[in-house]
Amino acid sequence: MNQLLTGKNILVMGVANDRSIAWAIAQSLAAQGAKLVFTFENERVEERVRKLAETIPGSTLFPCNVTVDEEIDKLAETLKLELGVLHGFVHSIAFAKTEELDGLFVDTSRDGFALAHDISAYSLVAVAKRVYPLMTEGGSIMTMTYLGAERAMKNYNVMGVAKAALEASVRYLAADLGQYGVRVNGISAGPIRTLAAKGIKDFNSILRQVEEKAPLRRTTETAEVGDTAMFLMSHLSRGITGEVIYVDGGYNIVGI
Ligand code: NAD
């Protein structure tokens, strides 16, 4: 099984450093011959993402802060000019204020609620809206979610509510875009130590619980998520849309 993605142009949003889930996804996609376009959030991460992107021959890099419509418009225009056709879009972006990821959900502020939903859920819709017209040969869109969308998990708080909105968005987008040959899915990953995870209080105890309770008795590796994302971007998954696939060592099936 190799070169499943030769000739495919795929947009990867959400690389911040070499621990990012989006980076592991990029490696799995590149290994199958995909041409990758990366974006970075701001100048603070630009240099780091540029260095990583340079290790993948043929890839390109553009700025895009997903809270700014003009930046997404510009990205879509650039993709049209540079590539013409897009085959895939990987969305691996989330944000919530640190103070919202601690204590009680009931204390969530109006601002914090709006910001978490804007960046972590609406951004999928905002980008999909602008890139699906470029998927003229059919396409695959995927996003990253977490079990906190379905269960009230300690300290995940407003991010869980935003992930629920994200998962519902996956279903609505899938229903809309199927007629254009565009599939939309999510991967629900087990906890992985990344920059985003640093914001979640007591993350170590969450990892320990997974090691103890997950059927596979270990935590999730980014490469496992990367390979599932590759499957979702490839024709191997051509019959699947509107789904959330768990890559969590089976943790979600276990009664606590
Ligand atoms: P990460 O910090 O490496 O990635 C988060 C990315 O979001 C960063 O690249 C950051 O630049 C980007 N981002 C935030 N605000 C942005 C904005 N306004 N515009 C553009 N980009 C912005 O952490 P990660 O763990 O790789 O997270 C990737 C995705 O995976 C997130 O959706 C996260 O919720 C999800 N996820 C993570 C875990 C985990 O345990 N790490 C588990 C399940 C799901």
UniProtKB/TrEMBL annotation:
Keywords recorded for this protein, A-Z: Fatty acid biosynthesis, Fatty acid metabolism, Lipid biosynthesis, Lipid metabolism, NAD, Oxidoreductase
Enzyme category, top tier: oxidoreductase
The reaction(s) this protein catalyses: a 2,3-saturated acyl-[ACP] + NAD(+) = a (2E)-enoyl-[ACP] + NADH + H(+)
Tree of life domain: Bacteria
InterPro entries per record: Enoyl-ACP_Rdtase_NADH, NAD(P)-bd_dom_sf, SDR_fam
Pathway: Lipid metabolism
Enzyme Commission code(s) on record: 1.3.1.9
GO MF entries: enoyl-[acyl-carrier-protein] reductase (NADH) activity; enoyl-[acyl-carrier-protein] reductase (NADPH) activity
Keyword NADP listed: no
CDD domains, sorted: ENR_SDR
Family, per entry: Belongs to the short-chain dehydrogenases/reductases (SDR) family. FabI subfamily.
PANTHER family: ENOYL-[ACYL-CARRIER-PROTEIN] REDUCTASE (PTHR43159), ENOYL-[ACYL-CARRIER-PROTEIN] REDUCTASE [NADH], CHLOROPLASTIC (PTHR43159:SF2)
Protein name: Enoyl-[acyl-carrier-protein] reductase [NADH]
Organism: Paenibacillus eucommiae
Lineage start: Bacteria, Bacillati, Bacillota, Bacilli, Bacillales
